[in-house]
Structures are given as C-alpha cells and as structure tokens.
Known about the structure:
Layout (H helix, E strand, L loop, with lengths): L2 H23 L4 E3 L10 E5 L3 E6 L4 E5 L8 H26 L10 H37 L10 E3 L1 H21 L13 E4 L6 E4 L1
Antiparallel strand pairs: 1-2, 1-5, 2-3, 3-4, 6-7
Helix pairs in contact: 1-2, 1-3, 1-4, 2-3, 3-4
Amino acid sequence: MSxxxxxxxxxxxxxxxxxxxxxxxxxxxxxxxxxxxxxxxAQIMWEGLWMSCxxxxxxxxxxxxxxxxxxxxxxLQASRAIxxxxxxxxxxxxxxxxxxxxxxxxxxxxxxxxxxxxxGGAFFVAAGVLGLVPSSWTAHQIIxxxxxxxxxxxxxxxxxxxIFICWGAAVLMLIGGxxxxxxxxxxxESRGGRYMAASQNGRERLEYV
Length: 209
C-alpha cells in the first residue's frame, strides 16, 4: 500500500472522527416540523443529545441542558453512550494509524507497523459502524412518529442536521478504515526483509527476497 493511500485513509478517518464529535454536541438531532396546524414559525425547537434549544423569530436562542438523564427516552440515552464509545474508539484508531504510518518513526519494524496500521483501520471501521447506529435509530424514530397519525402535529419532528453529519462522518470513517485495512501484510513477504541461506561449506549462498 502506498504512503499516499495510507495518508488518505488516516485523513478521512480523522475527519469522520471530528464529525462524530460535532454531531454529538450539536442540538440539531430533531427540529420542529411545520405541518398541519403547527404552522407557527415564531419559534423553532431544536433537540439534541444533551440539550434542547428554542430559537425565536428575532434570532434569540435559549438552550437548556436536560435535567435528568433517567427521564430521557431510551433512544436518546443509548445514542449518548454509543457516540461516546465511538469517539473513544476513533481516538484509539487515530493513535494506531499514526503509529503504523509509513512516514512516522514510532515503530522500527515494518511488519509491526503494517499490523498496527491495519488495527487502526479496524478501529476506524468499528467507530464508523457505531456512528451509524444512533443516527439511523433516531432517524427511524423521527420518521415513524412523523407518519404516525396518533402523534399530535405539535410533537412531530424532522431530521436535524446533526443526523446527516453523523451519517457522513460514519461513512468517512468506514472508507478511511477500509483503506488502512487494505495494507494488511501478506505472509512473510510483507516483512520486507531478505533471508540468506548458506551452504554447508560456507561458499555458496542463496538469497530469498
């Protein structure tokens, strides 16, 4: 695997990791849906994983952090936990991809560096999969409530920008992790060393690459 592709994979993974963090902190997972009788645009409700905000038509915004974690819906609690785990896994992937990078001197053994790079790619893939779970779960709940006739119009929500950011970040981490995993060493040839075999008389030597 070339250095350029390895750098590309690491860069995509880092961008995806940053996107996961941004989506986790933004209060834009659910936004007010203006349908039916709920057409008053004087204020807009934003709901995130950690806080909810009310945006007035004048541009003023008031945000409030959720008081009780136990009072939150199960999908919100699970999304918090999963995205925190995804961020930690992504951080491990970043360290591993740097340690296994061909342009770094963290490890002297080329075979070990390749293994560490592959491990970093696997961590990026795992973090990407974890990022897809809460965003897809929340989107499924929002869409289900939106088309549910038993849910009042004032309680219906639309997909917020944070969900799309989370989706995009997860895809970037999956692509970056896949590129890093493609550098998986194949047998003894990936060690990049030369093996010398000497004959019994010490005069003739065979060289294996």
